[in-house]
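Hi R.,

Here's the input for the zinc ion complex you asked about:
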Amino acid sequence: MYTNVLNLTRELINIPSISPKDLGCQDILIKRLQLLGFNIKRINFKDTNNFWAWRGYGKTIMFLGHTDVVPEGNISAWKTPPFTSTICDGFLYGRGAVDMKGSIAAMLVAVENFIKKNPNYIGRISFLITSDEESTGKYGTKKVVSILEKMEEKINYCLVGEPTSENILGDCIKNGRRGSLSADLTIYGIQGHVAYPHFATNPIHASSPFLVELSTLSLDEGNDFFEPTSIQISKIYSDNKCTINMIPGELKIFFNIRFNSLITEKMIINRIKQLLQKYLIKYSISWVCHAKPFISPPSTFCNILSDCIYNCTNIIPNIKTNGGTSDGRFIFHLANETIEFGLLNSTIHQVNECVNINDLLKLQNIYFDVLNKLFL
Ligand SMILES: [Zn+2]
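And here is the predicted structure with zinc ion in place:
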């Protein structure tokens, strides 16, 4: 019964499309969409492949996804070859099974089934598929969205196929994501002999009270949609080759902040600056904002999707914004609602990534149901 979605997932897994390479995954999808009468616009930049496909007029749903995957990691820890899809005990193993070749297959087969049944539906179905979601994100969804903006495209509902389910298919959908801001901080001291500390300034000692306060800093309380903004220190080092008798001259500290929509990048940077000043620290700092937060307050589309999930799984999904960033951040301003829903995320980016084969069929049915509810 699920031969079609299973076979398409397998076909895609067997292509080692390590980000940002696509290696022909999109050709497979495009061929099938052309048979359904979709218009196709390939929008490739450098080594990234993207396409925008659409069929119909009026109220528009966009399926957003990616054909690239992360590398296999430690190959000897895989039970099966990562780029040869393998079925074992009701699960399909292979890199990209859940993130997100399985979801892409489910979207495509759902659309095929819907159009075969309802070729004259009123509305527009579209796809935006990229191959650099797992790498820099520079030449993928972001670039295509800038072109769609120039074309004055409007999207009513965007459905991102990222794996959002946590313990069982359907238990979680995402209606936003936190932002991500990274800091590269250098603290300056005065290098010297450990036995003569009065002639030196130890940057590790000088920064310790600052680090304690930084690691417990409360920036906001969160709200109904978001957890409080959080800070994680990810690396500390001094380039001291002589650990017995030398005080280092510098200390490097890296930290990342996952922030919600209650606070801006600028507010965070000012707060950290105040903290550094409070402890009279000599420093230099550079910041990179990888993603800004976004939120789609639950409305029509979120309700339709929740109903369809309940109809297929008997589960009422939680609506959350946790986890990493996603390409939803590039599109949400073009769409009335951007919602993410896909397979289980417990094995994403791990060795032995796998999907429950029954979940593939269920996901296809949920996506199919969404099309029915939107357009019939
Ligand atoms: Zn993904």
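One thing worth noting: The two ends are 24 Å apart (CA to CA).

Cheers,
M.
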